[in-house]
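This week, think about what follows.
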Amino acid sequence: MSSNLEITRKACVVGWPIAHSRSPIIHNFWLTHLGLAGSYESVAVTPPDFASFAHDLAANGFVGANVTIPHKQTAFEVCGKVSPTAASLGAVNTLWLEHGALCGDNTDVAGFLAALDEEAPGWDTASGPAVVLGAGGAARAVVHALRHRGKRVLLANRTRARAESLATDAGAGVEVYDWAQLPSALEGASLLVNTTSLGMKGHPALDIDLAPLPPHAVVNDIVYFPLETTLLRAAKSRGLRTVSGVGMLLHQAAPGFERWFGVRPSVTPELRGLVEADVLKSL
């Protein structure tokens, strides 16, 4: 029988804006599927109000929260304790409470790796470096993940200075390429990851020539709106293995759910189908 604590246990996702978030679909599916008492909701919080919201989590009845744009860096700053991954990235996307203290982690790294492992098994044993496009927060998580698996990273961003800053922070094993040098960066690469907003609905398409990629290469676009971007379509037309952004979205959610509700959930085809259907409905 559920205790009163379990009945009142609730979590949320906080961002500005927040209406686009699929996190409530994911977490409420798990709560229902696992038969757990609890709730998960979305909360819109402006940047000036985020720090006080985070400090008042318990007072507002929350046991934890997911954090999305634009609050991840501020979330890191207000935490009393952070995971080594969050410390390396300077960003937090998952909050929870330990003995009243606000704690934070960044599960984007684990989510990115889990999606690749599931949808493109063996990707990390293939020869050749990984090419990462972009130098924002998502790129930092992806580069951290790739270096953790021992992959050499070739980083390209339209603004070279941002890429150089990321490479400096990441340390050895990351080399910066100019955007115009992409064809040479792709030669022999085993993985291409797009972390930019190019290809997202409402943004310009990511139009690059994939011809230099070898046949064993995997192409991963962390954009999931639309489900199949121009980049993924181009990769499929070449017969390359592809990984969409939905997998990362689903897998990054699991660690937080486990912290808040005490059970490690599974990413199932049913859940993926539910989220993909919602994305299609919104296009």
Remarks:
- The chain has twelve helices and twelve strands.
- Confidence is low (pLDDT under 50) at residues 1-6.
